[in-house]
Structure formats: C-alpha cells, structure tokens
C-alpha cells in the first residue's frame, strides 16, 4: 500500500497541483481551493483554471509552486470566450478557439498582474478546514474539538471511533491527532479514525473529500446506522481506545461499545475514553444513565464557553496625536495643570506681542507704509511662537503609556453543546487476578497489622525502643587508647561518694 501524503499532515514547503489549499481573503474569511494545473483555457478563462473573489481573479497558475503563506496579487484575466459566451448565450464548446495545440487545446495564457487586490495562500490545517468547509450539518468547532481530543487521550497511534461523520470537521482534527504514519500493509497497525455516517449523501461526499485530501489510510468511513449495527469494521474490531459520538441519541449506540468478546470494537487491554456531544440537557441525562448502567466510570459533563478578548493599551493624554484609540483628555491632575500653565503662558506672550505691535503703530503711524514687511514678520513671529508652544510636547511622558484595556471580539463561530466524558476500564479476568496475586501475594503476609495480638505488638515495640536506646548510648561513650570505654566526667564525680574516707 502506498499513500500520497496529505497536505493536512505533510504539506511540504510549497503549494502543488492536485493539493488542497486554503485561501485567506480577509481576517476570518477563508475558502478551500483544490489547485489545478491547466494546459489550456478553462471555463472561458484564457489563463486556465481561475479563482474569482471580491478581491479580484487569481489564475491557479499564479498560486502554484510558491511557499505556503505567500501573498498573491490579483491578475487581469482574459475572459475571452467566457465574455462572448455571456453575450451570445452560447456554450463554451460553440466558441471558436483562437489557436489550438496538438491536443486540440488553447495553451493557457500567462497571467498579468492587476492594479489591486491580493490574497494569502495557506497550508491546510483542521482549524482552517473547519472555517472553510462546505457545511452539510452542524459541525464541531475548534474550541470544542481541541478539548475533546485532549480528554479522550487522542495521540499519535490512537484508534478513534467517530459517529456521525457529518461534515468531517471532527474527522480532520482527529486524523491529525492520531497520525503516526501511513500503514505499509494490512497488518501494519497505525493511528486511525473509524468514522460512521448514516446519511448516504453525506457518506458519499465525505468519502470524496477524504480521498481528495489524501487521508484514505488514516480515516476509514463506513455507511452505517450505528444504533442498529454498531461499530465493527468488516467483521473485525477497530480496537479503539477513544470514542466520540456526535449523534442525536448517543445513548442508543452505547450498547455496542461494551467489552463483550467477539463483538467488541474496543481495545480489550486498555481503558477506553468516550465523549458524547449533545445540545440538550435531557440528552445528557439519558446518556449519563446509560453510561452508568453499562459500567462506565468517571462520568462528568463540561460545557466550553469560548471568548476571545482583544487586549489594547488605552492611550490617554491631551498631547496625544488625534488618532483612533487615543483619548485626548488629561491623564491626571498634574497633566491638566501643566497643560493649563502652558496655554496661559502662550496667551500672555501672544498678548504682549500684540500690545508691542499696537504701541509701535501708534508711535509711528507711517511705519506700516515705510516698513510693512518688518511689521508683518513680527506679527507672524508672535503667532508662530504660539503655534510652536502649542506643539512643543517634549519627551514622551509616562502617562502616554496608558492602561491596558480589553473588549470581547465578535464571538468565534461555535455551536454550544454539552460534552459528557467517561472511562471504561479493561475487564478484570481470572488470569489478571492470578497475575496480580503472584505479584502482590494476598493473605500470606507475615507482618501486617491485625495478624499479631496487642500484647505481642507492645512487646515488639518495647524491644525496638530498648535496642535503639542501647545503640544511642554506645555511640555517645568515648573509648580509651585500648578501646575500652572511658569514664565520663559524671562517673568521676560520682566516685568519691561511693569511696570510703581514708583518714
Ligand atoms: C451533527 S452531525 C456530526 C457533525 C460532525 N461531528 C462534524 O464535526 O462535522 C451528526 C451526524 O450524525 C449522523 N447520524 C445520525 N444518526 C446516525 C446513526 N444512527 N448512525 C450514523 N450516523 C448518524 C447524521 O447523519 C449527521 O451527519
């Protein structure tokens, strides 16, 4: 078995023909595009297959073999036969081709850059696919699936059961989470998503998508009513350790997720983690009851409430440029007073200059005629100095740094549901019991509390304490040169009392 690597898993450095790409038109506005290589005019476009957006036209030839993340300028496209087709209401085949190659095709024309418009071309990721996929159903969004995948312990090599597949949003995210290489043959067990879909139309669409995204070795989709027919695949167990149920009645499918040998789709050797996704609390209640009845443990429910906060620095100050986001009010009393002083000073200087000018005019009435340019320049100087002072802000003040503020951004698309989690431990067999007994013998312990009576325990304790005291004493008594114990100062002082008097 050989598999072409999926652009979701191993995208390489550059875009290539036949691969999926995500086109970013604006923030939060993405589109999915299957890149094509054209050798002639396509759909009336002389440049070959062309993507048309509100930011202009982009022939695929301008999007091919460029690094992911590139910005691509729009092209001025030649609508050739397409334009005529519209006017004449004829089909493309009716349009006479200008000049054809040996295959009967018009070679694709080289694209020329348009005066405006651009897009970014991004490598596909489950997050971008979720934002751009064609919706056939409600889908699981990124904030939910990232949490779910972590809770059900999806990691490279995990085998996940998913039902229903719906629009494939969760399938793509889980495929990336479990991917640890493509299987080399039938016996090569790798991380895999076993997806089940009841609706025939959606099943076919999903099959096509999985194929065109080169995920065939990683995602296996089955057309199945899982309430009735369970989760076995071609009569074999998927050996799953993780389960995700996004179904209208998940409790109806739980009976097929037992550990009965022969019909169990679960890995018998490991704990299985499950998550069910339900919008109503009544559905949650039914699911929890059924999980408890069937022996699932650690049952709990979570609701994800995703909010995105836009954090900005509030810039407050009378001297700030008049820009968006700046508040031109004094940041504090000190700034208000400083500003007021400046304004007063400017006014005074201006009035002084005006008075001086007036006095000169009165004293020398012909001055204006004699030297009008000098008078004018003085007046200009006075008003200039006023402007200069008004704009003289000095170095940036600490209050210019402002406070941090936040506001919620328009909410990320998400459809709120309750997530129920639970764990099904492995079955405990006779064999396991024996192995555990051999490792930790039970009932043959010689020294456990309860095996010895109270008196004996007390005696044991006394002996233990006595031996400890003896050891401690032995350590504290110093030895003489021959290795005998020396008498301590206390011993020496005690001696005369016991000795009889000599005189
Ligand atoms: C909400 S959609 C799943 C969306 C999907 N999780 C996603 O992220 O795109 C639920 C899907 O479950 C399918 N479904 C409903 N009952 C089913 C059943 N008994 N067996 C299999 N699929 C079923 C529906 O056809 C539908 O496509």
List the total number of helices: 13
Task: Estimate the helix proportion, in percent.
Answer: 25-40%
Characterize the biggest β-sheet.
7 strands, mixed
The secondary structure category is alpha/beta
CATH superfamily of the domain at 129-303: Vaccinia Virus protein VP39
Number of strands: 16
- List the ions, cofactors and other small molecules found in this model: S-adenosylmethionine
CATH architecture of the domain at 129-303: 3-Layer(aba) Sandwich
CATH class of the domain at 129-303: Alpha Beta
Question: How would you describe the shape?
Answer: flat
Annotated CATH topology of the domain at 129-303: Rossmann fold
The string of secondary-structure elements, in order, is EEEEEHEHHEHEHEHEEHEEEHHHEEHHH
Strand content is 15-25%
Q: Mean pLDDT score, rounded? A: 82
Distance between the termini: 115 Å
Rg is 42 Å
What does this structure look like?
Among the domains are: 7-78 and 110-124, Roll (Vcp-like ATPase, Chain A, domain 2), CATH 3.10.330; 129-303, Vaccinia Virus protein VP39 (Rossmann fold, 3-Layer(aba) Sandwich), CATH 3.40.50.150; 307-337 and 402-412, no CATH class. The protein is built from 13 helices and 16 strands. The chain has helices spanning 80-88, 126-132, 142-151, 169-178, 200-212, 226-229, 281-293, 333-363, 367-370, 372-391, 430-439, 454-476, 489-498, and strands spanning 20-26, 29-34, 50-53, 56-59, 71-76, 112-122, 159-163, 192-197, 219-223, 242-245, 272-278, 297-303, 309-316, 326-327, 403-408, 418-424. The strands form 4 sheets. Strands 9-8-7-10-11-16-12 form a 7-stranded mixed beta sheet, with helices on both faces. The chain has a 4-stranded antiparallel beta sheet with strand order 2-1-6-5, with helices on one face. It has a 3-stranded mixed beta sheet with strand order 14-13-15, with no helix packed on it. It starts with 19 loop residues before the first strand and ends in a 5-residue tail after the last helix. Mean pLDDT is 82; it is low at 87-98, 367-377, 379-392 and 488-503. The site of S-adenosylmethionine has 23 residues, from helix 4, strand 8 and helix 6.
């Amino acid at each position: 078995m050989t598999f072409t690597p999926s652009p979701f898993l191993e995208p390489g450095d550059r875009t290539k023909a036949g691969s999926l790409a995500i086109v970013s038109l604006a923030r939060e506005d993405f589109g999915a595009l299957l890149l094509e290589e054209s050798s002639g005019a396509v759909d009336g476009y002389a440049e070959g297959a062309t993507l048309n957006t509100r930011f202009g036209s982009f022939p695929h030839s301008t999007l091919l073999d460029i690094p992911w993340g590139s910005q691509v300028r729009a092209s001025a496209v030649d609508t050739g036969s397409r334009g005529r087709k519209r006017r004449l209401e004829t089909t493309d085949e009716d349009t006479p081709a200008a000049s054809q190659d040996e295959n009967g095709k018009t070679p694709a024309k080289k694209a020329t850059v348009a005066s405006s418009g651009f897009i970014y071309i991004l490598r596909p990721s489950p997050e971008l696919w979720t934002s751009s996929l064609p919706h056939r159903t409600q889908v699981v969004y990124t904030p939910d699936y990232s949490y779910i995948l972590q809770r059900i312990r999806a990691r490279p090599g995990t085998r996940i059961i998913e039902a229903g597949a719906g629009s494939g949003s969760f399938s793509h995210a889980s495929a990336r989470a479990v991917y640890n290489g493509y299987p080399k043959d039938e016996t090569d067990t790798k991380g895999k998503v076993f997806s089940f879909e009841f609706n025939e139309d959606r099943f076919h669409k999903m099959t096509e998508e999985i194929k065109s995204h080169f995920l065939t070795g990683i995602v296996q989709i089955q057309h199945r009513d899982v309430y009735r027919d369970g989760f076995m695949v071609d009569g074999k167990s998927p050996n799953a350790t993780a389960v995700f149920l996004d179904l209208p009645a998940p409790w109806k499918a739980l009976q097929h997720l037992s550990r009965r040998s022969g019909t169990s789709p679960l890995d018998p050797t490991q704990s299985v983690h499950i998550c069910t996704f339900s919008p109503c609390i009544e559905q949650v209640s039914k699911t929890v009851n059924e999980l408890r009845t069937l022996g699932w443990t650690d049952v709990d429910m979570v609701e994800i409430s995703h909010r995105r906060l836009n954090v900005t620095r509030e810039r407050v100050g009378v001297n700030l440029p008049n820009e968006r986001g700046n508040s031109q009010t004094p940041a504090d009393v000190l700034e208000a007073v400083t500003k007021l002083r400046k304004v007063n000073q400017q006014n005074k200087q201006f009035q002084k200059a005006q008075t001086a000018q007036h006095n000169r005019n009165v004293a020398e009435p012909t001055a204006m005629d004699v030297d009008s340019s000098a008078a004018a320049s003085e007046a200009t100087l006075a008003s200039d100095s006023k402007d200069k002072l008004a704009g003289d802000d000095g170095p940036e003040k600490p209050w210019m740094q402002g406070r941090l503020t936040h506001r919620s951004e328009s909410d990320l698309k998400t459809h709120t549901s309750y997530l129920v989690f639970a764990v099904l431990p492995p079955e405990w067999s006779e064999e396991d019991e024996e192995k555990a007994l051999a490792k930790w013998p039970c009932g043959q312990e010689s020294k456990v509390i309860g095996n010895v009576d109270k008196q004996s325990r007390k005696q044991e304790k006394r002996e233990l304490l006595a031996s400890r005291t003896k050891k401690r004493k032995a350590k504290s008594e110093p030895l003489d040169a021959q290795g005998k114990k020396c008498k301590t100062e206390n011993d020496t002082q005690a001696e005369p009392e016991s000795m009889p008097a000599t005189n």
